[in-house]
Automatic annotation (TrEMBL):
<dbReference type="InterPro" id="IPR005651">
    <property type="entry name" value="Trm112-like"/>
</dbReference>
<dbReference type="GO" id="GO:0005829">
    <property type="term" value="C:cytosol"/>
</dbReference>
<dbReference type="Pfam" id="PF03966">
    <property type="entry name" value="Trm112p"/>
</dbReference>
<comment type="similarity">
    <text>Belongs to the UPF0434 family.</text>
</comment>
<protein>
    <recommendedName>
        <fullName>UPF0434 protein E1B25_16060</fullName>
    </recommendedName>
</protein>
Length: 68
């Protein structure tokens, strides 16, 4: 018998929508929209999508995805 690690749920913790009241785009200082399907915070003004990883928004421009 091996001591393999147990497979924990791959589901990330949920993003707390109340954080939207405190967060702004680091580039434009404008409000953000929450995209639950893609787990991203969207800055329409900057044309960027900031990822949410493990329930924590990554508010770094270098980590953001450019919107089409």
């Amino acid at each position: 018998m091996t001591d393999a690690p147990t497979n924990r749920s791959a589901v990330s913790p949920p993003f707390d929508r109340r954080m939207l009241e405190a967060l702004i785009c680091p580039q434009t200082q404008t409000t953000l929209d929450y995209d639950a399907a893609n787990q991203e915070l969207i800055s329409k003004a900057a044309g960027l999508a900031f990822p949410i990883r493990n329930g924590i928004p990554v508010m770094l421009v270098d980590e953001a995805r450019t919107l089409d």
